[in-house]
């Protein structure tokens, strides 16, 4: 056992504000929202306790030490040297890409997305009266690939103004390599298409892979890019509402910041504290987390191959989310409904991620291995005896 115990049980229902565990009845295993069940690293907890000792919690701005921690992380982890003024603190990545679309595009402009895709990305262009241009990912033997010719055509389409990239991709867990990103970026530059890149899962890439921020590949790409990152998924602090944008181009940055009006105010001060502690003091914890998550991912792959060969599963290269193709199961209802009603497992319905998601589900394995194993036992029981009563776990 490592010094970090990811198998330790935590009663999350004891916290009345826990959306993940309190949305469904007590007999349901919640494996839907991208929220892990692990305790926040102790250095983050300690930093929050220290801040709580001061009795005033007014509007907050990022201290210079936090900006320094972000810049150090970008340079050490990604080889990307960024000026301090390029960093804009935000309450979340989702507000960030909506700010970008609101501040830098106009109604009627085209926004390219790769489907299936995270539901808030799918919806974002429609919030601002823009046209969503969908380019499906291509399934391949090793996972998924960008359809580069289709992207080129979409970027060349009259009125296309932005590409809303998700890397690593949600829900498939695809990690784009540098060559693929370079081709995509070159196409965006040719057609004067702004790159807005959601990279919230970028610190959760498994062994053998590497996350490349698309803007880090060349200065000319950075000049046409808005990169969005956060410690929220990696360190399980999403409820503290802190993220950041990296926008080297001053004019783009000013337009982006101007889009705050009426939508985004200051960042949660506890989120600022937690982010700095995460970046400075939690490197060993993150390393151990990745090992545990990769073992969960591989356990899931082995169990599916042995017990549920009719379910398609390409193990993700990053994140803690499994994209499962359930079209090989003869079900009278959509898979997510079957999982919930017959197996008492709450998952994200594939259709939330666009029409290509029909027949799929997204399952969160950022949990104790015992919970993951219990969910598979429930699924097997439900498939073998769909009208029978569920055994307790």
Short description:
With about 400 residues, this protein is α/β, with parallel strands linked by helices. It has helices spanning about 20, 40-50, 65-80, 95-105, 120-125, 150-155, 180-190, 220, 250-260, 270-280, 285-305, 335-340, 370-385, and strands spanning about 30, 85-90, 110-115, 130-135, 140, 145, 160-165, 195-200, 225-230, 245, 310-315, 320-325, 345, 350, 360-365.
Strand residue percentage: 15-25%
Using the CA coordinates, give the radius of gyration: 21 Å
The assigned structural class equals alpha/beta
CATH class of the largest domain: Alpha Beta
Side-by-side strand order of the widest sheet: 2-10-9-8-7-3-4
Order of helices and strands: HEHHEHEHEEEHEHEHEEHHHEEHEEEH
Helix content: 25-40%
Based on CA inertia axes, which overall geometry fits? Answer: globular
Number of strands: 15
Average of the residue pLDDT scores: 95
The H-level CATH homologous superfamily of the largest domain, spelled out, is Type I PLP-dependent aspartate aminotransferase-like (Major domain)
SS element count, helices: 13
Domain module tally: 2
Distance between the termini: 25 Å
Q: What CATH architecture of the largest domain do you see?
A: 3-Layer(aba) Sandwich
User: Main sheet, how many strands, which sense, barrel?
Assistant: 7 strands, mixed
Low-confidence stretches: 388-393
Return the CATH topology of the largest domain.
Answer: Aspartate Aminotransferase, domain 2
